[in-house]
Amino acid sequence: MSSDDDETKSHYEHHEYTTHNIVSFAAVTETIHKPSSTSQSNSYDPFDLDVYDDSASMRSVSTYASTQQNLKRTMKSRHLAMISLGGVIGQGVFVSSGANLREAGPAGVLIAYSLIGFIVYWVAYSLGEMSAYIPVSGSFTIFCRRFVDESFGTVVGYNYWAMWSVIVASELVSIPIVISFWSQGKIEGWIFSLASLVIIFIVNMLGARSYGETEYWFSLIKILTILIFIVVGCLVSGGVIGDETYGFKNWSDPGAFTPQGVNGIINSLAFTAFSMQGMEIVGITAGEAGNPRKDVPRAIRNVFWRILIFYIGTIFVMGMVIRYDDARLLPTDDLNTGNFTISQSPFTIVFTEGKLGEVANVMNSIILITVLSCANSGLYVASRMLLALSREGIAWNKLVYISKRGVPVYALICTALVSLVACTTSQIADGSVFFVLTRMPGMGVMITWSGITIAHFRFRRALKAQQRSLDCLPMRAPLHPFGDFFDLLACVVIAVIAGYIYFPSQNAIGIVGTYLPLFACIVGFIVLKLWTGSKLIPLKDIDLDTGRSDYGMPPTPPPTEEEKANKGPLYYRVWKRLIHWFT
């Protein structure tokens, strides 16, 4: 696998990346590849490069390349495949899912995860379609600025950067809680938080390949844990192991839904969205993928099955074995304050029901890996987003600096400092600060997904307005435009009702923590519109060419292991696919 990846990577680097045909997307103020006056006839082919005036493009590329070191395309296809999965498997699956089950019941939580799963599926495909076509780091911010409105893209970008900076901080705060299982409070918690930040900072400073390799193994551990959980849960439910046969007994007693009914489902939606956020990481990594036209679609196309197995499957098995009124489940109030123990994890409860012996140490280790993985991913994507904002001229210009390893050093340092400040503030203050930190990302991800959806809708309309064939796309999002309409409507509704649970009790901290990102984005958008005077970009003026992944494409590279695995008898293809998926 690695030899094919290296061969493909060197093949593309020689023909393509040395001429900067893919990465030129920022600091380019000229509109490139405009058709000449002779190309306005009915025979005009927008993909015939002979009818374009390339002089502006070449000047733009040259200027761009001379002002900065570029990101390195060192991310392998196996890294991208695992990141597309590992980015959405976080603490929410191993811990918070128990609070969701307690809030909504087995059927209610299954509905919540299925709804968010549909949103994630279409968002992932929409972003994958654009990222495979124009593979740039910080992708959807660039797309929002280029396809919709510059002020809109700026707000979406800063929202995403702030969201992940806050997530990194909240994960750093959680690390001492996890480690306290072993340390018993004998060591100050801030030491573990600081040490963890230093570790993930070093991993990111070593470059994209270091991050990709780390996340590959972290993700593999999480995947194996979930697969084991599903198998053990099914055996426990069927009475094969353990002392009791469950089946669907818990769906009738105490019931499929909690007494809260629909309110329980609504209350769990925000937590569910937070636990499933991260699928858009693939779009961020596209700017450092070795072969984005193949690697991005390959990672995205597995999204449906991964959501079905690792989220829906996990929740379904959990609901069969654990009653929603089980006293061992994590209460929502404790989830908000970060006050949890490993014994409250649904995974620990199911393994205990299966009489598998003492599993607390193992599960605590896995949750620690999960928290580190999430913080590691957060630092990576936030730094790349800040780099993209700087390249667009809407952040401090010093942040564009990239080291010889392809690391945006100043953007990484800036993000780490912001996360450190937020983490320190949370640990010094009372639990209300941590509560706000955990509530803000839920709204932030709704804003991000809405931005991606709107950008994709405008992207498709621009292709049609400019008479571009869909055959140019390396992959296509299914059910367009229905998927975009569904995503946008669902995100808006969830954003509006996200703080619903806090109004009856007049919980000001909960309301502020939930709606602060939305309020900040609305105010920021209005201020930017008034300040810059930006307008909605006409469809015919949208730039669909800068950074396109098919410009200067060399001949087709040698087939990969996955392509070779598609040939041969069925048993051989299945076996090769399993080997490829895990390696």
TrEMBL record:
UniProt-listed InterPro entries: AA-permease/SLC12A_dom (IPR004841), Amino_acid_permease_CS (IPR004840), APC_YAT (IPR050524)
UniProtKB keywords: Amino-acid transport, Membrane, Transmembrane, Transmembrane helix, Transport
Gene Ontology cellular-component annotations: membrane
Amino acid permease/ SLC12A domain mapped to chain residues: 79-532
Pfam family, one: AA_permease
Gene Ontology molecular functions: amino acid transmembrane transporter activity
Intracellular or extracellular location(s): Membrane
Keyword Transport: yes
Principal cellular location given in the protein's record: membrane
Topological type in the membrane: Multi-pass membrane protein
Transmembrane residue ranges: 80-99, 105-124, 160-182, 189-208, 220-241, 303-322, 366-387, 407-428, 440-459, 485-503, 509-531
Protein's name in the database: Amino acid permease/ SLC12A domain-containing protein
Species, as recorded: Lichtheimia ramosa
